[in-house]
Predict the structure.
Amino acid sequence: MSLLRFEHVSKQYAGGHEALKDVSFEAEAGEMLFVTGHSGAGKSSLLRLIHLSDRPSRGAVLLGGRNLSSIRRRGLPQHRRRVGVVFQDHRLLLDRSLFDNVALPLIIAGTPRGEIEKRVRVILERVGLGGRERALPSMLSGGQQQRVAIARTLAIEPQVLLLDEPLSNLDAKLRVQTRQELVKLQRRLGITTIFVTHDQIEALTTCHRVAVMDDGVIQQVGTPMELFDHPVNRFVAQFVGSVNLFAGDFRREGDRLRFVSPKLGTVALPAGVEPPAGAFDLAFRPHAVSVAEAPAGERDLALAGAVESAEFLGEFLRYEIRVGEALVIADVPHARGRAPIADGTAVALAVPASELRFVSA
């Protein structure tokens, strides 16, 4: 069931800059949806529209069927808007206890003291900080401080929780730990969560679905596996993981279809492979490339080249292989005792037909 819905939303700022362009998507009740993309893609503008810090130039943002612009016009106080946001710097009161930090929005809302006492203790218990009501934020880890910020937001009983780059101030090890804590907490609470990040690893490893943005447009929304296996265009293919991607044209010669690429050269596609109508690039992931001395079979895309470099990455060796004017990346699982293929060695590459993708520009 859809809880949050964008309907053909555009946002234009002074000077004519259009930060969002005809954006439409839905977030389901209880879903954790990541919004990701490079800096300037429109992520923060999208977040501000949900948080009611801004209003769309065109289109509508609906929460639980209500138009958020009408809620903003009515001037409802923050605690009644049912939208909570957690920023990357937590914004905790460092000289006040966890209890006081979580109680703050309830005090502002005029909640009776007895209800505040009860609700704050319940919320801290829900985020795993029960019994630490009198602790100061400085006594907590970065991940625990993040949970306090979430608890304070939960105090207003929001319908949707917004996380704005919540891990960007943490070191690499703590980012992983806190990310895992956030996922467990979200799934335990079951609250609809929009998580904005520029980090594709965060987006791919923790969410139900991902919305990939570029230049104010949502390029694709799907599960991490859908985005990785079936990118709709060149941008998504390159943004989500590593990819071999080549521009070119398709030409039929007899009963075989060939791909003619300025860099890759002319290669025969596997029997039975048919690209969709239109202009498409040929793509395949590095892990799908096998490297051997024997030629590929008829059901594979066969390429021939020479090893240009090898990089040991622990679980696998990443080879760069010169094929014509192109560099093809191949990730080969590492086996103990197996020496890397020497630079300059001629090799045959094979990509199964099932791993070939055709993506639009």
In short: The chain has a mean pLDDT of 88.
